[in-house]
Amino acid sequence: MTASFSVKLKPGDTIGILGGGQLGRMLAMAAARLGLKCQVFSPDPDSPAFDVVANATCAEYADVEALELFANDVDVITYEFENVPAATAMVLAARRPVLPAQKILETTQDRLIEKDFVKRLGIGTADYADVSSVETLRAAITRIGLPAVIKTRRFGYDGKGQAIIRAGDDPATIWEELGTKSAILEAFIPFEREISVIAARSADGQVECYDVTENEHRDHILKISRAPAGISDALAAQARDIAGQIANALDYIGVLAVEMFVVAGTSGPTVLVNEIAPRVHNSGHWTLDGASISQFEQHIRAIAGWPLGKPVRHGAVTMTNLIGDDILSYEQWLTVPGATVHLYGKGPPRPGRKMGHVTEVAPPSRK
């Protein structure tokens, strides 16, 4: 039996969330404001999302009995991270609607399948090649050239599972260090800036895109997001249109992020798609305080079968991630006029760990 994907929740119904990190925490908080309950499933007993829900399941994603009991307690299931094990999604989808759908996970969990999907839509990406051995890596380098970026096809995030290959590097050594049998080689893009579009799509096909966000990474981890991005209105419209095309082609329900590069061209800048994240996204955190509706509420509305909101930005917005020891400066941020501090309730800081973020909103200038 396959559960019906026709969902229409009412206040008091329960949403199941796979994953107990900060994204799950903020989804649950958004749902609570709308009178919806959430139950979080996570194998980590210290999950920060557990702190904001009445009911939680702490079990491994391979625990079928725990998954079945979890499904029995909820009306619809969503997730805060895209690397949900396929077997987990199958067990749950047989009992309750899982949104976004399992078929979307199959597309976005594998970088090669995702790139092929985007290419079939006629949307530009970096040149790429499938790599499964040192020999195929050498052949890909010959075709694509150097520098290039090699990435594992699955389970990479925040710079993990990837490396830059430059002239003079030994492909055999890099392949061994990557520690995989399945990778993708991508041409290195000399981009002008990195941007993303947060888009929401409802079950009836309504698509709402937020203003394009410009992102600054440090050590492969997002540090600062600014909205709107410093690009032309025409290029911003192109980026939003691409996100909408992708959402429609996937028959998507919920919020997704499309990460893109802005690259120079003979007729002016254009955009190339880098990655799709089938979930709420770090680069959309600015919407919590900087827009009329946050990405988290928008996602809850979509999977509940409720109308989407029209996102209106309140002004120029800057979101700063508090990574590792940055969290120790939270009191200083509390004194900054116009700044809103979000702390995730995690344990001790460690390098590369996202501990919170700060949003600053500059109101529109008055004429």
Describe, in plain words, how this protein is organized in 3D.
The termini are far apart. The protein folds into 3 domains: 14-98, Rossmann fold (3-Layer(aba) Sandwich); 127-187, ATP-grasp fold, A domain (Dna Ligase, domain 1, 2-Layer Sandwich); 193-362, ATP-grasp fold, B domain (D-amino Acid Aminotransferase, Chain A, domain 1, 2-Layer Sandwich). Strand 13 and strand 14 form a beta hairpin. The relative contact order is 0.12. It is built from 11 helices and 17 strands. Strands 9, 10, 11, 12, 13, 14, 15, 16 and 17 form a 9-stranded antiparallel β-sheet that branches. A 4-stranded parallel β-sheet has the order 3-2-1-4, sandwiched between helices. The chain is α+β, with helices and mostly antiparallel strands and 367 residues long. Helices cover 28% and strands 28% of the residues. Helix 1 crosses helix 10 (295-304).
In short:
With 367 residues, the protein is an alpha+beta fold. It has helices at residues 22-33, 64-72, 86-93, 102-108, 111-120, 134-144, 171-178, 233-249, 287-290, 295-304, 330-334, and strands spanning 14-18, 37-42, 55-58, 76-79, 128-131, 148-152, 162-165, 183-187, 193-201, 207-209, 213-218, 221-227, 254-263, 270-277, 316-323, 339-343, 354-362.
